[in-house]
Design brief:
4 domains, disordered C terminus, 5-stranded mixed β-sheet, Rossmann fold, Immunoglobulin-like, alpha/beta, 6-stranded mixed β-sheet, about 700 residues, 20 helices, globular, about 25% strand
Length: about 700
C-alpha cells in the first residue's frame, strides 16, 4: 500500500506518546512518520531521581472514598442502587459505608461521521446530533468531534447547548473515513486533560473505516487505559436514506438493507468497542432506536457510584495498602473500582489517589524481601546479567474481580481479557509475543484465583506488511513456574483493514471451549498439562497453517510465505528439544533488538538497559531486557520502568505487566553481572510527562 503523509490527527497521536498507537502509525507510513518525528522536540527530559514527591499517607486516613461501576452479566450498568446494596471490605474485614452517591456531570465526546458515505444525508446527522444534545442532562459537558479522512474538534467541552447546536452548521460531508484515527484522537487528545474523570465517547457512524492509519486492534489497549466508556451508535446508510420519509416505528426496507446495511465487520467491532470499555453497542435498526439509545446512554452514564466509607486501617509502612473489595447484594453483578481518595479538608490529587492504590502489590517479611529505596544515579550495565529461579512465590493484591462467563453462548473472542469459567480463571493473549497487548497484566488479574488458565495463539500473522509471531517454548515454561495451565489455540477468522493487514483475528471458539471443558476435569498439575500441550504443538500449528490459508483467500490479504511456518512445523515436530532451540534463537535475537531500541513509554534512553538471562529448574531459559540497571560494587539493582506521556501515572495495566516481571526478578538466585556474583535488589519506577520530576522509590517490601 502506498505511503501517504500523516494527517493532523495522526500527528497528534504521535505527539501523545501512546506507544501502541504511535507504532501502528509508524508501520502504516514509516517514511512520513520518521520525517515528522524529526520535527518534534525531545519527548521529555530525563527525570531527576533525587527529588522526592510530596509525602502521601492515604492508609492513615479514617474516611476514604472510591468510585464503583456496577455491571450485569450483559455488561450493562446497573442503576438504582443504595447504600444497603453494597458490602465493602479491606483485607477481608467489612468496613462501615457512610454514604453512596451516584456520579454525575460526565465529560462526553459526541463523535460524528461526516465522510462520503453520508454525503447526501448530512442533515440526518445534524438532526440526530441535535436530538442527542437535547436528551443529555443540562449539566453534562459535551464536545463535538467530526471525522472524514481528517478529524476536527468543533467545540471544546461546554454545557452551552446553543453553542454546540450552532457548531453543527459549520461542516459539510465528504471524503474518506478515518474512523479508527478519530477514536484514537479522541482518547489521547480530546479526553487527555480529563484522566480520572467520568468520560464517554458517543459515536454516530455506519462503523466502516477506509482511511485510517490505525488498525482497529491497536485501539484496544488505549481504550482500556483511558477509562472512557464507548457507546457506538451504528446507523446503516439505508436508514439515513429513508429518514426523510419513514415513520419512526417502521423497519428498514429489505432491499436497502441488503446493499446499504451495516457490515458484519462493523457490527463485530462496534460490539467489541463497547465490551472492552464498559459501554454499550447500539445497532440502529429503526428510526426510533436512536432516541431510545440516547435515553439509555443518559441512564448508563449515571450508574457509577461514589462510596464513602470508614477505614479502621491506621497502619503505616508495609501494611499500609490493604486489599479493597466491593460487592453488590444482587445476583449476576460485578464491580469495577476506580481510584481511592482520602477525605480531608484538602482533597488529595488524582495522582496521589492512584499511587496509593498501587503502592503495595505484594507484602512480605524476611531476608528475601526487596527494598524500594531512592535511586541517586543510574550506571550503564553492558554486561549480561544472569540468574536462576526454582520457584516463584507471590501474593497479588491488585487483581480485578473477574466477570463470570457461562458455557451457554460462550465466545472466547467476545470475552473480557480475563474472566471466570466455572472454577477456572482464564486470560487470553492476542499474540504469542509477550510484548503485545499486556498479556502479563491479563495473567496478573487471574493470580488471586486457585486455578489459572491462559490461552495463547500458537501463531499470529498480520499479513506480509505486518508482523508474524510464533509461540516460544519458554513462555510455556514460565507459566509452569506461575502454576498456570496453558491452552494453545489458533485463529480461524479475521478482517482486512485499511492497511491491507489482518485485524480482529478470532480463535476457533469450539476448540477453545472443548479445551476448557477438558481442563475442568483434569486433575494433574499445570506442568503436566502444559507438557501435553507442547506435545501437540505440531498438530495445532498445522491447523493454524490451514486456517491462515483460508483467511488469506477470503480476505485477499497477502500473508508471509509458508517457508517460515513450514520450518516451524518441521522443527517442532522432531522433538521438544528442537522446538526449544528454535524458539530460543528467536527470543535471543528479540532481546538484542529490544536492548538497543528506545520505546515510547520509556523515560530514559537505552544506555541504561541491561540484558537479563534467567534459567529455571526445568531447563527453561528466559531472555529479558531490564529497562534500567544500577551496579554499585557488588550490589545490582534491576529497575522495571513504566512511563506515561498523557496520564499522571502509568496505567494499572502497565504497572501489573511490570509486576509479573518483578515476581520473577525477586525470586532470582545465584545472580551474576558478567562473571561476578552480585547481591540483587529490584525496583519498579513510575514516571509521567504530567509530573516532570517524579520518583516513587519509597521503602516498600515485596515477597520473593
Amino acid at each position: 500500500m502506498r505511503e501517504r503523509p500523516l494527517t493532523e490527527a495522526a500527528k497528534a497521536i504521535v505527539r501523545s506518546g501512546d506507544s501502541m498507537l504511535s507504532e501502528a502509525i509508524r508501520r502504516a507510513s514509516p517514511k512520513y512518520f520518521g520525517d515528522y518525528l524529526k520535527t518534534l522536540p525531545p519527548r521529555r527530559e530525563t527525570p531527576s531521581l533525587t527529588d522526592k514527591p510530596r509525602d502521601v499517607n492515604l492508609s492513615t486516613a479514617q474516611i476514604k472514598r472510591v468510585v464503583a461501576r456496577v455491571m450485569d452479566t450483559n455488561n450493562r450498568a446497573v442503576g438504582g442502587l443504595e447504600k444497603q446494596d453494597f458490602v465493602l471490605t479491606e483485607r477481608g474485614i467489612e468496613r462501615e459505608i457512610l454514604s453512596v452517591q451516584p456520579v454525575t456531570a460526565p465529560f462526553i465526546v459526541c463523535m460524528l461521521d461526516v465522510s462520503g458515505s453520508i454525503d447526501n444525508y448530512v442533515n440526518f446527522i445534524r438532526k440526530a446530533a441535535r436530538n442527542f444534545l437535547t436528551t443529555m442532562r443540562p449539566e453534562d459537558k459535551i464536545s463535538i468531534l467530526i471525522f472524514n479522512e481528517e478529524v476536527k474538534q468543533l467545540t471544546s467541552f461546554t454545557t452551552n447547548r446553543v453553542k454546540l447546536s450552532e457548531s453543527l452548521d459549520t461542516f459539510d460531508a465528504g471524503g474518506g473515513t478515518a474512523y479508527y484515527d478519530a477514536i484514537g484522537y479522541s482518547l489521547v487528545d480530546v479526553l487527555k486533560p480529563f484522566k480520572g474523570e467520568r468520560t464517554a465517547v458517543v459515536i454516530l457512524s455506519d462503523g466502516d473505516d477506509n482511511r485510517s492509519f490505525l488498525p482497529f486492534e491497536s485501539l484496544i489497549g488505549s481504550i482500556q487505559e483511558s477509562g472512557a466508556l464507548i457507546y457506538p451508535l451504528y446507523v446503516p446508510t439505508s436508514l439515513a436514506a429513508a429518514s426523510a420519509t419513514r415513520n419512526p416505528d417502521d423497519s428498514l426496507d429489505p432491499l436497502r438493507t441488503r446493499y446499504m446495511g451495516l457490515t458484519s465487520k462493523a457490527e463485530n467491532e462496534g460490539a467489541r468497542l463497547a465490551q472492552v470499555s464498559g459501554g454499550v453497542y447500539y445497532p440502529i435498526r429503526r428510526l426510533d432506536d436512536l432516541q431510545k439509545a440516547y435515553e439509555d446512554i443518559v441512564v448508563q452514564l449515571r450508574t457509577a457510584y461514589t462510596i464513602t466509607y470508614r477505614s479502621d486501617n491506621t497502619e503505616t509502612g508495609d501494611s499500609a495498602s490493604p486489599r479493597l473489595r466491593v460487592r453488590v447484594n444482587r445476583e449476576g453483578t460485578f464491580v469495577n473500582l476506580g481510584a481511592v481518595t482520602a477525605v480531608s479538608s484538602s482533597e488529595t490529587s488524582y495522582l496521589n489517589e492512584k499511587c496509593s492504590n498501587c503502592r503495595s502489590p505484594h507484602t512480605s517479611s524476611g531476608e528475601n524481601s526487596v527494598i524500594f529505596s531512592p535511586i541517586n544515579f543510574i550506571l550503564q550495565q553492558s554486561q549480561e546479567i544472569t540468574g536462576e529461579v526454582s520457584e516463584i512465590k507471590y501474593r497479588p493484591l491488585l487483581g480485578n474481580t473477574l466477570k463470570k462467563m457461562t458455557e451457554e453462548n460462550f465466545d472466547i473472542n467476545k470475552s473480557p481479557p480475563a474472566f471466570l469459567s466455572g472454577e477456572l480463571a482464564v486470560s487470553r493473549w492476542v499474540s504469542p509475543k509477550r510484548t503485545r497487548s499486556y498479556p502479563y497484566e491479563r495473567i496478573y488479574n487471574t493470580l488471586p484465583y486457585p486455578k489459572r488458565v491462559t490461552i495463547i495463539p500458537i501463531i499470529k500473522d498480520e499479513g506480509k506488511s505486518g508482523e508474524r509471531d510464533f509461540l516460544q517454548f519458554d513462555t510455556v515454561s514460565l507459566m509452569n513456574l506461575l502454576d498456570i495451565y496453558v491452552i494453545l489455540g489458533y485463529y480461524i477468522d479475521a478482517q482486512r483493514d485499511a492497511s491491507d493487514e489482518l485485524t480482529n483475528q478470532s480463535f476457533d471458539n469450539a476448540f477453545i471451549l472443548n479445551k476448557l471443558n477438558e481442563l475442568k476435569k483434569f486433575k494433574g498439575t499445570a506442568a503436566e498439562w502444559n507438557l501435553q500441550e507442547l506435545n501437540q504443538v505440531s498438530q495445532i500449528a498445522e491447523r493454524a497453517k490451514t486456517a491462515y490459508a483460508e483467511i488469506a483467500e477470503r480476505t485477499n490479504v497477502v500473508l508471509h510465505d509458508n517457508k517460515g511456518i513450514d520450518n516451524f512445523v518441521k522443527n517442532i515436530g522432531k522433538s521438544l528439544d528442537k522446538f526449544r532451540t528454535l524458539s530460543r534463537n528467536k527470543s535471543q535475537k528479540a532481546q538484542g533488538r529490544e536492548f538497543v531500541t528506545i520505546q515510547p513509554k520509556e523515560a530514559l534512553s537505552s544506555d541504561t538497559k541491561g540484558r537479563v538471562t534467567i534459567r529455571d529448574k526445568d531447563g527453561g531459559l528466559y531472555y529479558f531486557t531490564c529497562d534500567e540497571t544500577k551496579l554499585m560494587g557488588k550490589i545490582l539493582t534491576l529497575i522495571e520502568a513504566k512511563h506515561s506521556a498523557r496520564a499522571k501515572i502509568p496505567s494499572a495495566s502497565d504497572i501489573k505487566d511490570g509486576l509479573v516481571k518483578m515476581m520473577l526478578y525477586t525470586s532470582l538466585k545465584n545472580v551474576k553481572a558478567g562473571s561476578e556474583n552480585v547481591a540483587l535488589k529490584v525496583a519498579i519506577r513510575l514516571t509521567s510527562d504530567k509530573i516532570k520530576r517524579l520518583d516513587f522509590f519509597k521503602r516498600r517490601r515485596y515477597k520473593s
